[in-house]
Amino acid sequence: MGSFEFKSNSPEDTYAIAKNLGKLLQKNDILLLEGDLGAGKTTFTKGLAAGLEIKKNVNSPTFTIIKEYNGRLPLFHMDVYRVEDGFEDLGIDEYFFSGGVTVIEWAHIIEEQLPPEHLSIYITHDGDHNRKLKFEPTGERYEALCKELFNENLSD
Ligand code: ADP
Ligand code: MG
């Protein structure tokens, strides 16, 4: 299965790429965000929220684990960085197919609880302001989504 790479040179770039993705999202989509602290996972989620027409400011949900926002579709934003036991019942499966978009920062920590089909996004530092965003789709829906996003950005 192919992967798709974007370069970002600023927080604004990361936000804009995510906003374009946010516009293409459909109910029950699941996005997994991976990357070190400060990589830009929350910045990316803010862009997604804009693409979903969410007006409220999106902040890191580290202490609450799950935050919910209303836009064109509901957004369920999770950060599982502090979860120590990957098998702990967080009740997250109730969100997955409830008609919204689920975004999980540090998703690999709860690997065992994730649906098999999803879009993984790996953000890596590449200097101070440069980031590499690698999109890895699993499943037809997410491959189609990546192709749509990638083609749009090529023609920009
Ligand atoms: P995470 O959620 O992965 O810990 P955040 O999005 O909270 O990361 O923070 C990313 C930090 O890196 C922000 O302070 C942001 O301004 C900065 N930054 C610098 N360059 C970029 C970039 N190209 N993309 C995203 N964030 C960037
Ligand atoms: Mg974060």
From TrEMBL:
A Pfam family reported for this protein in Swiss-Prot or TrEMBL: TsaE
Localization of this protein: Cytoplasm
InterPro entries, per the entry: P-loop_NTPase, T6A_TsaE
One GO CC annotation: cytoplasm
GO biological process, one term: tRNA threonylcarbamoyladenosine modification
GO molecular function terms attached to this record: ATP binding; metal ion binding
Chief location: cytoplasm
Alphabetical UniProt keywords: ATP-binding, Cytoplasm, Magnesium, Metal-binding, Nucleotide-binding, tRNA processing
Similarity-based family: Belongs to the TsaE family.
Stated name of the protein: tRNA threonylcarbamoyladenosine biosynthesis protein TsaE
Organism, scientific name: Lederbergia citrisecunda
